Protein 1
Amino acid sequence: MIADTHGLLRPEVRRAFEGVDLIVHAGDVGNRAVLDALAAIARVEAVYGNVDDPHDPSLARERTLAAGGLTLHVSHGHELGRPTPALALARYAGDVVIFGHTHRAIVARESGRIGMNPGAAGPRRFDVRPSVARLAIAGGAADVEIIWLA
């Protein structure tokens, strides 16, 4: 999972996503080149963020995806104002609810569900370290790892 690339795809992202089946981009992609580079690694499902063109046919407002017997919901989070895992889990259905927008990586578990932000993988902003996340699903259970970049 990746978010807030803002047009920059760091070289470490390829290594972080090596061997994944699916890359979920939680918005603020920045440009088509980012999606094309991610698609060279694995299949990409992406949503638009507040800096993206909402009319881009490759970007949806939100997506619901099936993965490993679980349901993933992804949106950018700007529609929630200041998104938190609790707000995202309250608003959206899904076993794993993924959002971006705040640029801060966070994983929270609540009632058997996960609300998470992979952090911002693009240009460094707001004194936060760039990151992405890997979601592993086995036996109907999800495990999330934040991977810090640069």
Protein 2
Amino acid sequence: MIAISAAEIRESFRAVDGPDVQALVQVGTNLLCSPLVEQLEAELGKPVLAVNTATAWAALRQHGITDRLSGWGRLLSQH
């Protein structure tokens, strides 16, 4: 098993960010990125989506659950 640190994840987002990038999306369910999303959004000034977070948000909304969760980025803090 290969462990990827939070610092490596943050650095990877910074590496692909640029002025022409409107949002950053992490794809791959085996990477624990969700806890870093709020910090990355604040640092980079744009939406950051982790696939696990987006999947959970979509499943909740599809079942009529509109709870908002703080601390996990813009997506989970919206209706």
